[in-house]
Specification:
Number of helices: 4
Order of helices and strands: HEEEEHEEEHEEEEEHE
Helix content: 10-25%
Distance between the termini: 15 Å
Radius of gyration: 17 Å
Shape: globular
Strand order of the largest sheet: 4-3-2-1-5-8-10-11-12-13
Amino acid sequence: MALGKEQIAKRIAKEVKDGYFVNLGIGIPTLVANYVRHDISVEFQSENGVLGMGPFPFEGEEDPDVINAGKQTITTLPGASFFDSATSFGMIRAQKVDLTILGAMEVAENGDIANWKIPGKMVKGMGGAMDLVASAENIIVAMMHVNKAGESKLLKRCSLPLTGVGCVKKVVTELAVLEIVPEGFKLLERAPGVTVEDIKNATEGNLIIEGEIPEMVIE
């Protein structure tokens, strides 16, 4: 059974460690804040100038003045702070962020990522993605394994304009958890009910399979 977006976010939340400063990109990554363990202390940062984001607000409790970089309404935790974009990107460029979680349209087996532009479609700007991938040392991508036509988005080489080169460390999709190693995509876990063969068929890039591949535990 392929995972839904919420379940992908739940699995990625397990990668968040106590004391981390974490930047959440637009899309599936924004859901991760909803699932981080309550017994650890984590500071979520948004490049529009927020440190200390909490989970999404309940319906009817939204404050339209408190948003993340994706223009979604958010909550803030006690001690949260607000600042300008220059300060925010100063944190990012100075490598003060321990973990960056991004969405992507394509990821290549060497860790390249394409997540900002589809040629021919109007884009108002690349946002903060270029700074994030250039500065971050630990990048996890949350994405769908295949597109709507069933074609792989985990490729030998990206076909879309690149956001960053050789920067992705791990990918979590609706089918699998994969680590980027020098040889390609190393399969670490598979979604419940998904076979290794399913993942092989959905992966264009070089897939490395060693031993028995455990199922993800989604709690």
